[in-house]
From TrEMBL:
Name of the protein described by the UniProt record: NAP1-related protein 2
Similarity section: Belongs to the nucleosome assembly protein (NAP) family.
One GO CC annotation: nucleus
InterPro entries noted in UniProt: NAP-like_sf, NAP_family
Organism field: Trapa incisa
Signal peptide residue numbers: none
GO molecular function, one term: histone binding
Any one GO biological process: double-strand break repair via homologous recombination
Acidic residues bias (residue ranges): 220-254
Amino acid sequence: MVADKGKKMKLADKDEDHSSEHIDGELVLSIEKLQEVQDELEKISDEASEKVLEIEQKYSELRKPVYDKRSEVIKSIPDFWLTAFLSHPALGNLLSENDQKIFQYLSSLEVEDSEDLKSGFSIIFHFKPNPYFEDVMIKKSYTFPEEGEAEVTATSIKWKEGMGIANGANHKKKGKKREQSDESFFQWFKDDSDPDAINDEIAEIIREDLWVNPLAYFNQDDDGEPDSDEGGGEDDGSEEEDDGSEEEEEYDDE
């Protein structure tokens, strides 16, 4: 009896092993099928990305002459880029008081993408001759090769004697003006060796936001709101009330 019982237990174990192997085999087949479907989806996504990139490249070429035209118009507007920078909610507090003086010589700013739009871009500042540095053009470039590590390079600014980057104390503005930076914005051009420089928030904001529509920020007031003529509207109403009161006095005299 004991021997028969042992045989039954062995048979039960074999049945369990067989069932487990069957389940494992079905699971493997399901995962393989799922991987095939996922590969098919990724292939379609890759094709879509290539098509989107082709369209972006086409329209990037169409934008270039329009950006050039915009730059020419901006040159006729005094302190355009300084005003746009100061009005931007993320960039405005990066300019020290001394930076603002330098930015008065900034004639144009441009973002130059690589031809394929994916291997890199440059942010370029053009300056009129000024008492601060010898350069008339300074830029910061980001390169993203298909193989290898990304790179960041920047112009080494040739400061004139006594005009190098100097960090001072925070300068608080009166009223609703925000506090200005105690570090020069031009320090950004020296941060090319920082490992975190690849994920550069300043570059992203300039490229994706300020460059796309700087007029939106040039037209903002110090609170980040578009300029309006609300004050003028209130004055008009008060003038109408005054006119009405004068008419009442004339009727009383009669």
